[in-house]
Amino acid sequence: MHFDTLHNQFQAGKLGMWLFLGQEVLFFAALFTAYAVYRGNHTEMFHYGQFFLNWQMGAANTIVLLFSSMTAAWSVRCAQLEQRKGLLLTIAVTWLCAATFMIIKYFEYTHKIHVGSVWGASFNIHDFSELPEKLQKLLTEQGITTTEAANAKLGKDGLGLGTFFAVYFCMTGLHGIHVLVGMGLYAWLFVRALKGSFNRKYYGAVDNIALYWHIVDLIWIFLFPLLYLIG
Amino acid sequence: MAGGVVEKPAGAYGGSTKNYLNETRGIKNWLITLDHKRIALMYLVAVTSALLLGGFFAIALRTVLWDGAVRDPQDLFLGLRIEQMYNRYFTLHGAVMVFLFIIPGIPASLGNFVLPMQLGAKDLALPRLNLMSLYLYWIGAIFFVGVLALGGLDTGWTLYPPYSLGRDTSIPLILALSAVFILGFSSILTGLNFIVTMHRLRPPGMGMYDMPLFLWALYATSLIQVLATPVIGLTLGLSLIEHVFHIGIFLPEYGGDPVLYQHFFWFYSHPAVYIMILPAMGVQSELIATFSRKHVFGYKAIGWSSIAIAVIGFIVWGHHMFVAGQSPAAGLIFSFLTFFVAIPSAIKVFNWVATMYKGSIELKTPMLYGLAFMYLFGIGGLTGLFLASIANNVHLHDTYFVIAHFHMVMVGSTLNAFFGGVHYWWPKMTGRMYNETLAKIACLLVFVGFNLAFMPQFVAGTRGMPRRYANYSDEFTIFHQWSTVGAYILGAGVLLQVIYLTHSWFKGARAPKNPWGAASLEWQSDSPPDFHNFTKPVVVMAAYDYENWEYDANTGGYELRKEVVETGRSIATVHN
Questions:
Q1: Nearest to B255 among A22, A23, A160 (CB)
Q2: pLDDT tens-digit readout, B341-353
Q3: Most CB contacts within 10 A, which of B97, B121, B415, B564?
């Protein structure tokens, strides 16, 4: 060890993690910018695209993630207090919440693929009757009642919803990858906690992974309203 | 500042004959080493190889351009039709030089070696992360070799869609996009590591203002690496998905916006210009102060101007798109902001000149590179102002004037500083001296060759010679031929360096501890340093306290004065 104290080593790891989180923010910032640019230039695209997103599922995921952020923070406290059972429990719950999030995400994604509301060139509605009800109603008011007409209106020769879904899938997909990484980290943490690696002086990994988990949560807190709530 | 001795646990010091090069042997011990010095040396070999490869492409391009006015572009050159070969070579010249040489160049090789030692530390704060950066670099480099092996790319190093994405040159493009993505993370991790190290491993008694200016420059560089690189990482990730799945984010035929790509690309790649130049400026500060044997003038001004350049660098990217369909208002704002970069840059140059004023200047090879830097950076910087003003830019955009301008900065300044830095720290890194006469000749060749290669390009550019063309009308012949001759001379200078430095590595005279009388802490270690960096307690002092050192005729180098060693305190009267 080349640090003079354990405290200094802990602080170095933590500063490294904060810088990494700064990097993460900038990584996502480009996607948020793409969102803003396309939303600014093609407001209608976002107006129509939003009908496809299921806000109940998004809200459920928000609650799941917020809860997991609490257990993540709790796990740090458990490590500091050397509460072995509490540490294992909070890590396990955090992991399970992450898994729940991904399961809900899975249902959202498969439904979109089923309907055909996907990215760019692949955007192609399979059946008018599978469109969200509110959107069906809006289109019917405009005299659009067939699958072909709906595709002409929404597809790349019309509003270009493919780009909306490119933005949607890239943002939520990249976030989903981060959740998966978080699951891997918490699984590793669980094994180490089981071995009793942490104590009140040595718990940097628990702290840093919790920090990572908070940024994953925080990004979702922005994604949810931007994609699901504002029309 | 309060001086002090860094306490090391007993037994931490290695023997006197052992050093980091021979501590352990065998290729495996090098591949899994966590030692920053070994990692730095491996980086140095890697980036130099990239430099030579990129240089080969440059020489080939200049050769073709010798008679571009009369040569048929359908002719064959190196097995390809010239028009084909030219596009691929300038793409690879740019990509290899930018991503494999100049961005990692100074920080990852010289910085990696010197940074912990200038803090009197054993290693970087996160040694495993450092090794991981090196491996990521290697993976990226191997991908680029794959690009070469599979026939290369002809998209230009900027990989602009729609020209790049969604076309049939599929595999090399995928490799190149992945390579730059991976190299980006190598760069981010290096920067992150540097910042943590400078905060957590400064010895007791050394404040931020006692650090050498090289470290201030690396700090500013690292900030950019951590905060700008993720954006290009994401952009290239999106490009990759666009290329394979046609998601409609950059390609217009699927509803995407190619100008958005350019914004994203330059949001990184303009700050990246400062990733290239800031470490060079840091090296420059060390060279000028050391070889003027005088405390650096305007320490805080130089240090903070590095930070200022890093910050301003984030808000000027739009000047790459003055003619790319950006709104006139945006163009005006970006033009205005771009001028601001000139201020901290000029602050640095004036302070270096003031440092030399009344100094006892010693014209050793590193100092010669330092002087060349100031001259060439002056031209490179001032021509930047021409390009920053919109009216001029419309005329000069994408001409040889731009080529000459950024080569003045990237090659004239950064490459020069890299050479200067390598010559400056070579005795420390290898424990050997090089042939001073040959080194001076090489420096002269590089300087003359470089000027000859790029000065005519300014003129050709103002007369309308566009970049990226393999042929040209006859009026430009004279400029191209001068330029080609210059490129050959520059190439000869670099080859000469490779020869005498290789000779020095095996047969050079043993280097003293501190051949130049420099005062930063790395010179208190042996040459080459012990595996643990320092065998004696380090006397912590501010970076430019030259009075603590005196010449020792026995070793041919400088030694710490007796009273400094005994008291463990700096006796210098002027501090930063």
A1: A160
A2: 999 999 999 999 9
A3: B415
